[in-house]
Write a structure and sequence with these properties.
Strand content: 15-25%
CATH topology of the largest domain: Rossmann fold
Bound molecules: adenosine monophosphate
Distance between the termini: 48 Å
Strand order of the largest sheet: 3-4-2-5-6-1-7
CATH class of the largest domain: Alpha Beta
Largest sheet: 7 strands, parallel
Order of helices and strands: HHEHEHEHEHEHHEHEEHEHEHEEHEHEHH
Number of helices: 16
CATH architecture of the largest domain: 3-Layer(aba) Sandwich
Number of domains: 2
Helix content: 25-40%
Radius of gyration: 22 Å
């Protein structure tokens, strides 16, 4: 099926051709007509499925049919949980708007940089704003933009943004928007609790690619290697050298570990850098662009890099530490094997993390053979209880604050959850 059969205008068809897209991906084929018709939609799209274009193309088309007229508000708002993802989506929207016959003002708004230039740039409104919720609210509070003219709201990585941790901010954003807007939710996973919350912010949405359990792009080869915790950096070096991996994204459990592991690799002559939420925005952006431009061979990251970031030709993802939550496994390994490329996901499984990895396997409905790499065989007997088994601990050993919040959310109704997040009792809500 060609793009031209989806009802997109000539300028958008030129833009997709310029991107080298020959035909729409499955999610684009299904979502574009629904979005163009103005309906609410909930799409469970695997990572790398082309979901950005699936919402950006119809948004741009609807803008061209209904220009905002007044230049004070914004017509479409796209929310994403990380700064990198926001900037990536904004850049994609710019590319898709390249041949538009009228100027389209698209802005990516993230924290970590000064507020003033963003306030200046927002003068006169914008057509499409892509933002993290925190920075968006900062700008609303400074009267730099208004949300009362938003016709379409897109929430990317919706499972993350509907989590209780983001719910306070999201509820405040939603309060400022018209009730009769179009709301589109995209995510690689839709746990039941997120579905219940989503029900409170959408009107009879059409659901696409239903996935009660996470879906896995088929092109990713998954491996599990048994190894003792203290040997993991050496094993990583060995695998990089043995397989000649040109570019590797390595996930670790803590911010500290990103620096620690990157440093050890650098000492071994491997171009590696850390990537975590505590680094300044400039350092984060530099690390990501160096990695994308192949100036870095290894990026050692926390789960911050697990969401949505599109790195072309990333052949390997390594779980140096296992993710705490099973769903994060899908997000992490989805960084490889994007847009049909082949990818490999390697998980290091220490003896003490074996039970946790079995849980992840159960959740993903898969069983992986435990490999032993000669010279790095694990020795279960050597694991004493006081030996740190992962740098950041594993889920199930001791409940983190996040786990406790998640559990609390499981037993709450969606409305209660949002109210709890706002720290306001239901009876105090205005009717
Ligand atoms: P996304 O899931 O939006 O992050 O997209 C993943 C990658 O797929 C990006 O590099 C896009 O440029 C690419 N892509 C999106 N749509 C298509 C398409 N129809 N054909 C080929 N590649 C695409």
């Amino acid at each position: 099926m060609p793009f031209s059969s989806l009802g997109l205008t000539g300028s958008l068809l030129l833009a997709v051709a310029e991107q080298g897209y020959h035909s729409p991906t499955e999610i684009q084929r299904q979502a574009i007509p629904i979005i163009l018709a103005g309906q609410d939609m909930r799409a469970c799209a695997p990572t790398g499925s082309g979901k950005t274009a699936a919402f950006a193309l119809p948004l741009l088309q609807r803008l061209s049919k209904n220009p905002t007229g007044s230049r004070v508000g914004i017509a479409a708002l796209i929310l994403a949980p990380t700064r990198e993802l926001v900037l990536q989506i904004a850049a994609a929207c710019q590319r898709y708007a390249h041949f538009s016959p009228h100027p389209v003002k698209i802005m990516g708004l993230v924290g970590g940089v000064s507020l003033n230039p963003q306030m200046m740039a927002l003068r006169g409104g914008a057509d499409i704003v892509v933002a993290t919720p925190g920075r968006l609210l900062d700008l609303v509070e400074h009267n730099a933009l208004k949300l009362d003219s938003v016709r379409t709201l897109v929430i990317d990585e919706a499972d993350k943004l509907l989590e209780l941790g983001f719910a306070v901010e999201l509820a405040r954003v939603l309060d400022q928007m018209p009730q009769d807007r179009q709301t589109l939710l995209f995510s690689a996973t839709f746990p039941a609790v997120v579905e219940r919350l989503a029900d409170t912010i959408q009107r009879t949405p059409i659901s696409l690619g239903m996935c009660s359990s996470p879906t896995m792009p088929a092109v990713i080869t998954q491996r599990a290697i048994s190894v003792d915790p203290a040997r993991r950096t050496q094993l990583l070096r060995h695998l990089i050298q043995q397989h000649g991996w040109s570019r590797v994204l390595v996930f670790v459990a803590t911010k500290y570990a990103t620096g620690h592991v990157a440093e050890k690799l650098r000492r071994a002559g491997i171009a590696a850098a850390a990537f975590n939420g505590e680094l300044s925005q400039g350092v984060r952006a530099q690390a990501l662009s160096d990695f994308q431009a192949a100036r870095l061979q290894v990026l050692v990251a926390t789960d911050l890099a697990g969401r949505g970031i599109d790195i072309a030709q990333l052949p390997v993802v390594v779980n140096f530490d296992l993710p705490r939550a099973a769903d994060d496994y899908v997000h992490r390994i989805g960084r490889t094997g994007r847009a049909g490329e082949a990818g490999e996901a390697v998980s290091f499984v220490t003896p003490a993390a074996e039970a946790h990895f079995t849980l992840i396997e159960k959740r993903q409905r898969m069983t992986l053979l435990r490999e032993q790499v000669p010279g790095f065989e694990s020795t279960p007997a050597a694991i004493a209880p006081d030996v740190p088994v992962t740098i950041g601990g594993i889920k199930g050993k001791r409940k983190s604050k996040k786990d406790k919040r998640r559990e609390a959310m499981e037993v709450m109704s969606p409305a209660q959850a949002i109210w709890a997040a706002r720290a306001v009792k239901p009876e105090q809500q205005k009717s």
